[in-house]
Amino acid sequence: MLAVVVHAPGDLRVDEVPDPVAAPDEVLMRMAYGGICGSDIAYWRSGISGTAVLKDPLVLGHEVSGTVEAIGEQAAAEVDAAGLGVGSRVTVHPATLVGEHAVPADTAERTNLWPEVRYFGSAAFDPHEQGGFSTLRAVRPDQLRAVPEGVGLDQAALAEPFGVALHAVSRAGDITGRTVLVNGAGPIGALAVAAARRAGAGRIIAADLSPAALEIARAMGADETVDVGAGQALPADVDVAIEASGAPRALGGVVAAVRRGGALVQVGNLPAGEVQASLGGIVTREIDYRGSYRFVDEISDALEAMAHGFDVSPLITHTVSLDRAVEGFEIAADRSTGSSKVLIDLR
């Protein structure tokens, strides 16, 4: 089969690799679409994503959809209980919790904070956890999530990042009727706009350097936009800010935009190591600064939202065939192309 494999920084290829053999307790998926994420681009460009360092060739991709191709004998009962079978349209929860750990009771159900988590297309462990940008992939049955009727497999590939955005908005608490600033209108920021709308925000403002990104944010539900690149100023006294750019230089302005006693959720990945940022307002304005990491099972909430009319298709700006995957990465990494979410058609 074909797979998108990063071999080293700057060395991304579409390789012929052996077909996976599903274990008796696994399900074989035929992949349909994969969404290129910032972490995929980071592995391609630098060989590093966060604290994970590429050591061996890695099949990328954790935002994926497809259909059930075959079911292992020991997996059959679990698959059947989930209402799935051969041919069912599915997406995947990419996480696998590993190791035995004693965790505080108040975080026991926050599985995204488990000390050791293998994730599709991640070099955090050795051997690496291979991803889903391939023709076929073997998965555990508990990782499967059924794609609702009326939701395309292309949109279903966005359930994972939509889950990230839903989790980030939930970290802000009850935002019903509140004014929310989303700073950074890339894919996660645009999905955070949709998540804030779903959570009942009263007024949503999206800020970015790119007019194209702001247009997508409006399509995803933003009431207002701020073109930072054109010199427009961030609003003042918002109740909640979702920082989705991951740019340390943006933090000071976002902190200043939050009202006294408000909340700031950091979902954009900040660079590894030390960063320089103006954060004094967190103290003087008594702002709650909260991190947001991946999700628990909000991928299921994302699929439910899509089934009830939340249209994520404005986010999909480009789709490339599997043999053009490297070109897709180049498009996704270059904001001048007007790209937001770039999909790879894996069929």
UniProtKB/TrEMBL annotation:
CDD domains per the UniProt record, alphabetical: idonate-5-DH
One Gene Ontology MF term: zinc ion binding
Keywords: Metal-binding, Oxidoreductase, Zinc
Domain Alcohol dehydrogenase-like N-terminal, residue spans: 24-148
Pfam families in the record: ADH_N, ADH_zinc_N
Residue ranges occupied by any Alcohol dehydrogenase-like C-terminal domain in the UniProt entry: 187-306
Cross-referenced InterPro entries: ADH-like_C, ADH-like_N, ADH_Zn_CS, GroES-like_sf, NAD(P)-bd_dom_sf
Source superkingdom: Bacteria
Cofactor(s) recorded in Swiss-Prot or TrEMBL: Zn(2+)
PROSITE patterns: ADH_ZINC (PS00059)
Similarity section: Belongs to the zinc-containing alcohol dehydrogenase family.
Matches recorded under PANTHER family: SORBITOL DEHYDROGENASE
Entry protein name: Theronine dehydrogenase
Organism: Brachybacterium muris UCD-AY4
